[in-house]
């Protein structure tokens, strides 16, 4: 697009989300890129569609109304739910010449921070120690009780070299930990070594790890990838961390392991989500369930808007996009 062109940029997201994603300074920067309009009612005018949380799925019906559209910028993470059916068929956004990009890289940073914190707490066995401290006081601090706690020499298993998984490995590369990686798309050991991890099969990862942290996409082949058999392989006193998708873990099997006190868990996602009131996982002292808060929250949401506006700036100037998503990527994205 030439420098003199003024594209129409239509913003489609919830009102509260828009306020957080596009605070005044970010919106001012967006306005320098083109004429800004709000709502899918303006889709027929859109050269660029800026979406986010609160935007409905972009169906074929909406596609027919978007005759001018050339760019979809999603100021959030996954686009799989946003573009239903776009992985195949002649009616997809890609087949109409629409470029799709996402701020998933920006959203991955706080998720990796959250997972890193959970790993450190898990290696300190913080949940179990806190429960003992609450019930028996100072006994939790006795040297004998803390004998197995600590990060030095511990083995952490990372499932999925995704945006989050790679960032987490980078944070864990302190030299004190052994990091195992399972990801079918990391096909050679050297690729894992470059990341700072040892490539292993999923069963071996579970058997060798004291902490298993999940960063894989939700696909038919990843459903219940941590089933009863693999959960049983994890070392006694081990911890499962899930900030990816709840369906990756067999919830009933995890309940049994945690209720028996053999495993602990940090769960930011669950299956079902949300868990019903009174679910066993919500009452166990060695399980922390949070309501999908690992991604950008509060002041962090602004970074999604900044990333999205930077993508539009690059597009206007004819530069490569950092978060571009191709149709063939959908089969392995979260």
TrEMBL record:
InterPro entries membership: D-isomer_2-hydroxyacid_DH (IPR050223), D-isomer_DH_NAD-bd (IPR006140), NAD(P)-bd_dom_sf (IPR036291)
Record's keyword terms, sorted: NAD, Oxidoreductase
Single GO MF annotation: NAD binding
Gene3D superfamilies per UniProt: NAD(P)-binding Rossmann-like Domain (3.40.50.720)
Every D-isomer specific 2-hydroxyacid dehydrogenase NAD-binding domain range: 139-294
Name this protein carries in UniProt: Glycerate dehydrogenase
Domain of life: Bacteria
Membrane-crossing residue ranges in chain numbering: none
Organism, as annotated: Streptomyces mashuensis
């Amino acid at each position: 697009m030439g420098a003199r062109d003024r594209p129409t940029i239509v913003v489609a997201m919830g009102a509260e989300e828009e306020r957080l994603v596009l605070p005044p300074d970010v919106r001012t920067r967006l306005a320098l890129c083109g004429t800004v309009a709000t709502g899918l009612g303006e889709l027929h005018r859109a050269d660029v569609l800026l979406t986010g949380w609160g935007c409905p799925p972009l169906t074929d019906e909406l596609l027919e109304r978007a005759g001018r559209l050339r760019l979809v910028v999603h100021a959030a993470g996954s686009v799989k739910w946003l573009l239903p059916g776009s992985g195949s068929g002649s009616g997809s956004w890609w087949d109409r010449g629409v470029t799709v990009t996402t701020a998933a890289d920006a959203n991955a940073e706080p998720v990796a921070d959250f997972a890193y914190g959970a790993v450190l707490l898990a290696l300190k066995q913080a949940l179990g120690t806190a429960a003992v401290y609450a019930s028996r006081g100072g006994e939790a601090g006795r040297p004998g009780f803390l004998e197995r706690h600590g990060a030095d020499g511990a083995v952490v298993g990372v499932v999925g070299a995704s945006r989050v998984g790679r960032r987490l490995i980078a944070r864990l590369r302190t030299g004190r930990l052994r990091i195992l990686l399972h990801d079918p798309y990391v096909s050679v050991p050297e690729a894992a070594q470059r990341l700072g991890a040892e490539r292993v099969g999923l069963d071996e990862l579970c058997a060798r790890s004291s902490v298993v942290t999940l960063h894989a996409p939700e696909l038919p082949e990843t459903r219940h990838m941590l089933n009863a058999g693999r959960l049983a392989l994890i070392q006694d006193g081990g911890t499962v961390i899930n900030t990816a998708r709840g369906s990756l873990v067999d919830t009933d099997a995890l309940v049994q392991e945690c209720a028996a006190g053999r495993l602990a868990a940090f769960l930011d996602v669950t299956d079902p989500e949300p868990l019903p009131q009174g679910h066993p996982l919500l009452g166990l002292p060695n399980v922390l369930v949070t309501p999908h808060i690992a991604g950008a929250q509060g002041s962090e949401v602004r970074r999604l808007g900044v990333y999205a506006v930077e993508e539009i700036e690059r597009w206007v100037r004819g530069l490569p996009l950092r978060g571009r998503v191709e149709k063939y990527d959908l089969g392995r994205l979260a």
